[in-house]
């Protein structure tokens, strides 16, 4: 699994993804959450049904509970008459006894009274005094929700590893489950680095810039099943980085949001080589080349590029799959849009290009300014990927946009 | 906008959507949230840039800050020599003075020192003592991130109504904004009704069932920008329903999860007609016909069918768009999958059919059992919509699946 790459030899995105994937382990810790907080979480337990749903045969229609055998041959010209001996109340165990030739008024959801096996819908009957005139035969089990037809007692309607959707939450509720054991969310340290980086909210002069990357990274972490913890900006000296990394290794994943100087990149590489093993350094993608990934004390440490758009685009391409694997979430399937390029674009041979775009009607308009500009992403609706072997695309070419929302 | 429909005359889904939309108003209340909680929220303010990003011209590459005019005509055979007079440190206001014929060492992100207008990349230079040999001319502004090129001071990079994505959060951070005014989330009352409905966690006998619908509805509300509040189950007497509705009207939207008896449906209709105006009662969709929608004291009150799959499918089709309009969220674009039916299916002419399906490789396998079964949804990957005028679809027919996750 180890594969050390120097910055000179770029790793393909596919290989980078494979290397990250091979070193990421899903979280095994679990915790118990109430139903209200369970949507989107991943089950750490099988759910075995302690009883059937429905618990017993219930009416699936409004009408009369009866025995199918009593309705054989019923027709408009030759109806069958059943004696109405009572009714079933919703939410109560039926007290009415129905013997052959009899029936009981019933509404949807009521338990079938003893002695009945089907429900005759009102529209196939007429009431005449205490007689119900039946114009159509029913079969055994007609208009009945049979015991266990939804969930059978002892079965496992939900399994460890299932992500809880609204419907799966409904399954838990149907079984009376108030809380459930789910995998914990990965805890992710986000460390901004660089002498020029200032914490948002602090006063700055012209030579410093506010920390953008920690916030965009934390947002991606939070939206993909993780719990981000943003560190204070760390000056890019070896000692400071070493100290920050060491305390961050308590987390499940460590993301270092790089400053942008060559010196710092070299230092990160040396530090990560000394502390663990570097999986790759430099990816064949634009923007986002300077990404570095390593394993330190069993933890994946990703060093993201300092340019805000490079950092965020690599967060979508490389970090998100890693996060979702740790959080045991299914692959995210972004909504896509097929449209036509509004103008000719020039790409970079030999690197996969992530180009942000706006969707304007049927047209797809490049939104990319430069990788240092956060508005390259913020003003875009999504992105297109231009393959390594394509250097230009023409106005009118069809492209598939991966939408951000 | 008013249009009362009786249960006999079903409203088309398109008309139902239009009626709901015409009576839903986006929330106007706002609140201030820190950046850490801002992703996915909707701005209630324009964001005007108090300064430019970058604040001043910065190096976009590592190299030498110089004057473009000094490099005119430089080539490998006829290089230009500049005197290296110092360096710029990242995060500091440059103290070095660069006069014509001089340059200063600079790395990406550093402010350009006075007297320079461009950066000469290292790869086009050679260092010879205190001279930098330049083999290529640069143009003014080359390898420079100009002041305001990302965001100009006084401009409005984010506007009221924008949903905050990771990238837009980055824009806020770049401007040093610690917290931001966003629209409040709609508060949604979810009222389970029916004598047979028991609160999850309480003991029950065979005649009662656990409240599924409140939990599935609350999940959909929470995933679509709302704050659900689940009420205790309400017996379906007029008095109890009236009391529950009255206290629920403090919320922005009221959803009543119906019991399933005809009596109850009639009572809901009468109660909602008495209290306000009914927009529609009965929708041309299967499952989910019994949905009722009304406006009471300026609040939309939706009565959802009691069958768990009917309730949840209508939550996706009718409630979700309403919620997202209230929460000012963009239309949800579910991921879709195109596949081929694994077998022939029979639909219902005159009603739009929402059929849950599983995706198995390229095949789309119907997952629907019955509308009373929550597993009709929980065991499905998504759903297909079969139009009103289609009664059968053949094995191998291409269908588009709207995926749940």
The low-confidence runs of chain A, each spanning 5 or more residues with pLDDT under 50, are: 1-6
Q: Under the CATH scheme, which architecture of the largest domain in chain A would be assigned?
A: 3-Layer(aba) Sandwich
| Structural class label of chain A | alpha/beta
Q: Which class of the largest domain in chain A in CATH terms? A: Alpha Beta
CATH topology of the largest domain in chain A: Molybdenum Cofactor Biosythetic Enzyme, Chain A
* SS elements, strand count of chain A: 26
In total, the number of domains of chain A comes to: 4
**End-to-end separation of chain A:** 35 Å
Radius of gyration of chain A: 32 Å
Question: Biggest interface pair, residues each?
Answer: A-B, 96 and 96 residues
Count helical runs of chain A.
Answer: 7
Task: List the SSEs and their pairings.
The structure is a homodimer of 405-residue chains.
Chain A: H1 13-23, E1 30-34, E2 58-59, E3 63-66, E4 80-87, E5 102-106, E6 118-121, E7 125-128, E8 131-134, E9 144-145, H2 166-174, E10 179-183, E11 187-192, E12 197-198, E13 209-210, H3 213-223, E14 227-230, H4 238-248, E15 253-257, H5 262-275, E16 277-281, E17 285-286, E18 292-296, E19 299-304, H6 308-326, E20 336-341, E21 345-346, E22 352-360, E23 363-366, H7 375-378, E24 382-386, E25 392-393, E26 398-403
Parallel strand pairs in A: 4-5, 11-14, 11-15, 12-13, 15-19, 17-22, 20-23
Antiparallel strand pairs in A: 1-10, 2-9, 3-5, 3-6, 4-8, 7-8, 16-18, 18-19, 20-26, 21-25, 22-23, 22-24, 24-26
Helix pairs in contact in A: 1-6, 3-6
């Amino acid at each position: 699994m180890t594969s050390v790459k120097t910055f000179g030899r770029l790793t393909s995105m596919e290989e980078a993804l494979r290397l990250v994937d091979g070193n990421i382990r899903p979280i095994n810790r679990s915790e118990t959450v109430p139903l209200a907080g369970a949507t989107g979480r991943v089950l750490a337990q099988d759910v075995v049904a302690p009883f059937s749903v429905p618990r017993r045969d219930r009416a699936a229609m409004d009408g009369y509970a009866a025995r199918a055998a009593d309705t054989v041959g019923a027709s408009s010209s030759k109806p069958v008459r059943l004696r109405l001996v009572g009714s079933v109340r919703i939410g109560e165990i039926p007290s009415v006894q129905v013997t052959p030739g009899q029936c009981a008024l019933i509404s949807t959801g009521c338990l079938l009274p003893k002695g009945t096996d089907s429900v005759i819908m009102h529209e196939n009957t007429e009431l005449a005094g205490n007689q119900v005139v039946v114009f159509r035969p029913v079969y055994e089990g007609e208009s009945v929700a049979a015991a266990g037809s939804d969930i059978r007692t002892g079965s496992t309607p939900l399994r460890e590893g299932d992500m809880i959707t609204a419907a799966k939450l409904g399954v838990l509720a149907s079984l009376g489950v108030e809380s459930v054991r789910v995998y914990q969310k990965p805890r992710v340290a986000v460390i901004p680095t660089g002498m020029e980086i200032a914490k948002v909210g602090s006063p700055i002069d012209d030579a410093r810039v506010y920390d953008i990357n920690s916030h965009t990274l934390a947002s991606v972490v939070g939206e993909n099943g993780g719990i981000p913890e943003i560190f204070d900006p760390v000056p890019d000296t070896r000692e400071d980085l070493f100290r920050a990394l060491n305390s961050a290794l308590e987390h499940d994943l460590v993301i270092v949001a790089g400053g942008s100087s060559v010196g710092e990149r070299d230092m990160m590489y040396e530090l990560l080589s000394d502390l663990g093993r570097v999986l790759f350094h430099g990816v064949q993608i634009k923007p986002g080349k300077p990404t570095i990934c390593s394993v330190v004390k069993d933890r994946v440490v990703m060093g993201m590029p300092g340019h805000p758009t490079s950092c965020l685009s690599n967060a979508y391409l490389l970090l998100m799959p890693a996060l979702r694997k740790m959080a045991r979430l299914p692959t995210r399937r972004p909504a896509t849009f097929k449209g036509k390029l509004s103008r000719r674009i020039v790409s970079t041979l030999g690197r996969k290009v992530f180009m942000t775009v706006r969707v304007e009607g049927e047209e797809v308009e490049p939104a990319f300014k430069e990788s240092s500009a956060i508005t390259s992403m913020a003003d875009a609706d999504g992105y297109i990927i231009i393959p390594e072997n394509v250097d230009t695309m023409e106005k009118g070419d069809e492209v598939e946009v991966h939408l951000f929302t």
